[in-house]
Design goal:
By secondary structure, the chain is α+β, with helices and mostly antiparallel strands. It is built from 16 helices and 33 strands. The chain folds into 3 domains: 207 residues, P-loop containing nucleotide triphosphate hydrolases (Rossmann fold), CATH 3.40.50; 99 residues, Rossmann fold, CATH 3.40.50.300; 138 residues, Peptide chain release factor 3, domain III (Alpha-Beta Plaits). The strands form 8 sheets. Strands 28-25-27-26-30-31-29-32 form an 8-stranded antiparallel sheet. Strands 2-3-1-4-5-11-6 form a 7-stranded mixed sheet, with helices on both faces. A 6-stranded antiparallel sheet has the order 18-17-23-14-15-22. Bound molecules: guanosine-5',3'-tetraphosphate. Its main location: cytoplasm. Keywords: Cytoplasm, GTP-binding, Nucleotide-binding, Protein biosynthesis.
Length: 528
């Protein structure tokens, strides 16, 4: 087996999706503990606590180093290399989340057993479904009273439209939680307060028929378990790897992240069954991860890592080949060779200079704004990876400058911050306005704060009469010119120079579409 094939097969690149408070941070921390990446619980939580409130989030983001390390966490486990990509917690950062999901091969869904399927999980699942991303599920907080497990599976099936195949099954819940049964191995893992719940530090019975087990947990608990198992094994499908890989069936685990309970069972199953890096689609062909030549795409940009130098880190997912330190790569959009000097890898314990990276891995490339989201790097071939969307923002504000002499700084700040992808910046063709679009209202606060902090610009955002935007395309150049003339008052350029129609109302947009049937008005722009 070639080194390329071997290294690819070892990789597991995934993200955790959940509604806030379901336990994503806690679970991340436990996974890192198993990977030996952190020594002590608390280090991930500390960061998250500070991220909760907007103001704290901003203060924290100033320590860019921290947020970069937490963006991608790489750790070894059981001979595999796991890349866990962080998705931003706040709903206003959902665009970022969508793009992170383009860079993973599978996802892990965390559900709070008392709350069941929540609104943000539904949204995130929609994105996973669009891409047929395989999903494992962890039903969390079993140490508290929640909905009956069978009802939870029903809810996942009916609300999220994915079949559930339980791999572990709880014995009791809340105060009565006794343990879980592994439905594939038959083993029973007991829940005992204060244990670590590693394989070495758990009480494990070989099967539910072990008489010692009944003595331990009591006859009523066993009777209830047997009844439930009969029901669930009759109704739920057995685990089918093909159905899972196609995104149609989710293996389900029960546990308690904060107690570490049930987590290793999940992790062991995950490394054995979650997919290794998949082939990637480009506009011209499918790229196999086992190809020897390097290729990859940028799915995230983080600006101003070091405010002194205005540098940015572009996060690239390797799709094929091998990256090695200091190598040159072809930046497809500019057509230029770029030296990938000082690229970063993301061992969870620390951020380190990259020595090498393989498909599924993420490297961070320092640059001064030459790299954008959606860009590809290769060893010379022109490849455009598809499916990294740019969403039309839903909220718009006009930037208002308190000190007119700072206009240049403001323009620069807005343009650079929009490179990160969470906001979009428009310059109308007919006016000197600077309009910012965002998917969530919190973004405006964040931008105002960062303009001040990183660019020394005091700006406020005021309402503007734009209700939606569309990227404009037309195959007929003459028609496009005509349209530009007629609609000039509604046209703007986005940060990359692409033409955008700013519609004051939905009706206006509809009329424009009717008047110019040959012009395409697109709600998403794929990064070309
Ligand atoms: P998130 O990243 O998905 O938003 O969730 P996070 O891990 O921060 O967990 C949200 C809350 O749920 C935390 O409580 C966390 O301790 C708690 N939690 C996580 N897993 C379990 C579990 O298995 N059982 C129980 N009972 N609680 C769990 P918090 O009070 O918000 O924070 P903290 O005071 O514990 O730090």
């Amino acid at each position: 087996m070639s080194e390329q094939t071997k290294q690819t097969a070892r990789r597991r690149t995934f993200a955790i999706v959940s509604h806030p408070d379901a336990g994503k941070t806690t679970l991340t921390e436990k996974l890192l503990l198993f990977g030996g990446a952190i020594q002590m619980a608390g280090s991930v939580k500390g960061r998250k606590a500070a991220r909760h409130a907007t103001s704290d989030w901003m203060a924290l983001e100033k320590e860019r180093g921290i947020s970069v390390t937490s963006s991608v966490m790489q750790f070894p486990y059981d001979g595999r290399i796991i890349n866990l990509l962080d998705t931003p917690g706040h709903a206003d950062f959902s665009e970022d989340t969508y793009r992170v999901l383009t860079a993973v091969d599978s996802a892990l869904m965390v559900i709070d057993c008392a709350k069941g399927v929540e609104e943000r999980t539904i949204k995130l699942m929609e994105v996973c479904r669009m891409r047929d991303t395989p999903i494992m599920s962890f039903i969390n907080k079993l140490d508290r009273e929640g909905k009956p497990p069978i009802e939870l599976l029903d809810e996942v099936e009916s609300v999220l439209g994915i079949a559930c195949s339980p791999i572990t099954w709880p014995i009791g819940m809340g105060q009565r939680l006794k343990g879980v049964v592994h439905l594939v191995t038959g083993e029973v893992h007991l829940f005992e307060q204060g244990r670590n719940f590693t394989r070495q530090d758990s009480t494990i019975f070989p099967s539910i028929d072990d008489p010692a087990l009944e003595k331990r947990v009591g006859a009523p608990a066993m009777a209830e378990l047997r009844e439930e198992l009969e029901l669930v094994q009759g109704a739920a499908p057995a685990f089918d790897i093909d159905e899972y890989l196609a995104g149609r069936q989710t293996p389900v685990f029960f546990g308690s992240a904060v107690n570490n309970f049930g987590v290793q069972l999940l992790l062991d199953f995950f490394v054995d069954h979650a997919p290794a890096p998949k082939p990637a689609t480009t506009a011209s062909r499918t790229v196999q991860p086992t190809e020897e030549k390097l290729s990859g795409f940028v799915f995230k940009i983080q600006a101003n890592m070091d405010p002194q130098h205005r540098d940015r880190v572009a996060f690239m997912r390797v799709c094929s080949g091998r990256f090695s330190a200091g190598m040159k790569a072809f930046h497809v959009r500019s057509g230029k060779e770029m030296k990938l000097a000082n690229a970063l890898t993301f061992m969870a314990s620390d951020r380190e200079l990259a020595i090498e990276a393989w498909p599924g891995d993420v490297i961070g490339i320092h640059n001064h704004g030459t790299i954008s989201i959606g860009d590809s790097f290769t060893e010379g071939e022109v490849l455009h990876f598809t499916g990294i969307p740019n969403f039309a923002p839903e909220l718009f504000r006009r930037a208002q400058l308190r000190d007119p002499l700072k206009l240049k700084q403001l323009q620069k700040g807005l343009a650079q911050l929009s490179e990160e992808g969470a906001t979009q910046f428009f310059r109308p063709l007919m006016s000197n306005d600077l309009i910012l679009g965002a998917v969530g209202v919190l973004q405006f606060d964040v931008v105002a704060y960062r303009l001040k902090d990183e660019y020394g610009v005091d700006a406020a955002f005021e309402n503007v009469s734009v209700s939606t935007t569309r990227w404009v395309y037309c195959d007929d150049p003459k028609m496009l010119e005509q349209f530009k003339e007629k609609a000039a008052g509604n046209l703007a350029l986005d940060a990359s120079g692409a033409l955008v129609y700013l519609a004051p109302t939905r009706v206006n947009l509809q009329l424009a579409q009717e008047r110019f049937p040959k012009v395409r008005f697109e709600a998403t722009r794929e990064h070309a």
